[in-house]
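ok trying this again, last paste got cut off
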Amino acid sequence: MLVGRIEKAFARRKAEGRKVFVAYLTAGDPDLETTEALALALEAAGVDILEIGVPFSDPTADGPVIQAASQRALKRGTTLAGILDRIDSLRRRSDIPVVLFGYFNPILSYGVERFARDAAAAGVDGLLVVDLPFEETGELRRFTDPAGLAFISLVAPTTDTKRARTILRRATGFVYAISVTGVTGTSTPRPDDVRRDLERIREETDLPIVAGFGIATAGQAAGIAPLADGIVVGSALVRLIRENAGSVNLVKTAVSFVREIREAIDGKRQEGPGGLEKRRWS
């Protein structure tokens, strides 16, 4: 059985005794060329898996930061075809696993069968389609499973055990545990709640579990990472990119932030006076 890039990323970090760092970028914000430059720089800074957000006009799972990023990307003419072209370009220089994060409508408009073929050819490793109910995933997975694309499943704090068991039975790649109740980037996860939810999920799957939604600071990353196999940071990074869009220091600033999160995940940053939570991007 072939081992894909996602599996290799988790296996490598597990062998090192470290946790996986997943970073989210909205494709096309501020433009696709910068998205590719950021992807390469963040990989060098310690990111293990990239979630590439496909901008959509009605991003119901996302909070205001990513909603606004999607709007900016759409106004610049970002398309799913353009994103796949950019991932194909990225793949010539990087083996970092890429998970497309988004909504079903752009895939349906593109053509499901064509999407599966083109995404796999471009070097996409997995999908996370947040608004596609489990009962309707067959329409997409009958093409994406044979293409070798992992289908990443979300489990929320509000997902009851019976439904979680059903979802996880068919999950592949890794499990995305939503660490707060709500949309992205609008509230802070509580470690005790995350620990309880992850223990419940672990009883139902052997797949790696990452925690995401609301992890915005090095202090939060340090608190949540030991509980999971990895963490996701999205809105805080997207906000930082927005604040520095147009600056010659954009990539450098994003790398500095990512390195600090990486060090916190690895337990290399100590809580100083005032605490990690008071960094400027909190």
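PB: full thing came through this time. Residues 272-282 have pLDDT under 50 and may be disordered.
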